[in-house]
Prior knowledge:
Layout: E1 7-8, H1 18-23, H2 34-51, E2 57-61, H3 64-75, E3 81-86, H4 89-100, E4 104-109, H5 118-127, E5 133-137, E6 139-140, E7 145-146, H6 149-157, E8 162-166, H7 178-181, E9 185-189, E10 200-205, H8 207-215, H9 225-233, H10 243-259, H11 261-281, E11 297-300, H12 307-318, E12 320-321, E13 323-324, E14 334-337, H13 344-360, H14 369-386
Parallel strand pairs: 1-12, 3-4, 3-5, 5-8, 8-9
Antiparallel strand pairs: 2-10, 6-7, 9-10, 11-14, 13-14
This protein binds pyridoxal-5'-phosphate.
Amino acid sequence: MFQEQMMLRIPGPTPIPPQVERAMNRPMIGHRSGEFSRLFAETATRLKRVFQTEQDVLVLAGSGTAGLEAAVSNVISPGDKVIVLVGGNFGERFVKIGEAYGATVLRVEARWGEQIDPELVALTLAEHPDTKAVFATHCETSTGVLHPIEEIARRVRATDALLIVDAVSSLGAVELPMDEWGIDIVVTGSQKALMLPPGLTFLALSARAWQAVEESRAPRFYFDLRAYRKQLQANTTPYTAPVTLIFALAEVLTLFEAEGLTAIYDRHLLLQAMTRSAIRALGLPLFTSEAAASPTVTSVGPCEFDVEAFRKTLRNDCNLAIAGGQQHLKGQIFRIGHMGYCSPADLLQAIALLEIGLIRSGVQVELGQGVRAAQAVWLEQKEVVHHG
Length: 388
Ligand SMILES: *Cc1c(COP(=O)(O)O)cnc(C)c1O
């Protein structure tokens, strides 16, 4: 029934606001037209605020991984030593990309579900002063952990290494002031906190990172960032721009400006608190500690019931899509995405459905307990706001 009501509470792709959907129905225009150039130039400028940077924000056609690959191929030459911080599936992906480009990869690891220890990063950098770059994941989507980038950046800034951050599932939902913290490359994608369909990746580079781009000897063509920067200065893109997605992006930026970045960050913190409180009230285990939890995705587990059957029940009976675990966590945990176009009301609905799914899966929970706990968190936050 009502297939179009399927609620996407997975950590990407995320739901698209109706204004943004409507923007994509605009008739096509030429990517070299004056109209497109004006729109593109304006969009690129507005994006800087979301990245909290004075640097150019480059927009490329491709999924988030294309942006990660561009970050590697534009600064790493074969034989360069890099440190990759690995605490989940996306950290592992950075390792694979680095190795594909011939880098010598050192790993600094955290157990899945835990944060990377910034001291360990500093120690590894001290042992390897010839490190070209450190690759970090801001929100490790596979575990729901937010890694301490500010602390890591402080350690990396004390060395010659560049800091490259995968912020695909955090930028636009969680504070990440690129210039202030001294991050050299920030990469994100369209289909997570930015409320867009999949298909765009974004990169911003520091002056030091641009220097490394000039010096890199790795082969690259479509993702040669110098071409994107050069064309951006002429208000265009080197190859045919994904025009429809740029229409949508302009609308997203309007929504961002209307809500305000601080309010957006606060909303995600509220969604995180409501979700965690509901899970606790239902007597289920949270996979990450309070201090390590991401405001964009909450992992629940390890679970004693059949997680995959539970997810299927939710999808089929309740029109609610949530994510399962990845790799060795498959069948162990489930993940609730609450980033982008997600309000407290949306979340209450998801939690109410979660309770039905749990009971139908034979899990002993008391109906309404999760909802009530989440409502209380929301009410409390409203009171704090009202009382100043
Ligand atoms: C979603 C995601 C990516 C990008 O994946 P694509 O499927 O290539 O868009 C990269 N890193 C993180 C942390 C992600 O959550």
